[in-house]
User: What shape does this take?
Amino acid sequence: MTDELTLLRLDPIGVPPYSARRITEDFELDDEAQLVRTVNHKLVNLAEDDAESKYRLTITCTDQQMPALDGVKRGMVLTVDCATEFSYRTVGGSPSREVAGTTDDPATRTEGDFTHYRPRLTMMVVDYRLGFAEWDADCNWTLVLLEV
Assistant: This one.
């Protein structure tokens, strides 16, 4: 395991120590799929067949320090090496995203018939929130990103 306290990387802003030890990463599809039902109630997708799905990523955390979000603005582009692992069938499969590679910790591993990897995503800042509970000394934050 790396000497860092989290596998998450946010470039160019960085991740300060004690700001992301209990992060939660929530992914949801943010694509151009246009799912509609026909008159016979069959579900069809009207989007282009080769359209690549993009992700909306919401990172939340409560820790002892604030993240390095000072000066971050909506629309800023970040390279995100996620802590979350994606997986695919090893034989005949391949990662759908670039593999993270900024830590000494391996970003890929194989288990049985599946390869797990931590993705590197190019994302744009949509929003963020910071909070502080004084008596608990808890810094809480949320960062919302869209894949570009």
About this structure: The radius of gyration is 18 Å. The first strand starts at residue 9 and ends at 11. Residues 9-147 form one domain. The mean pLDDT is 91.
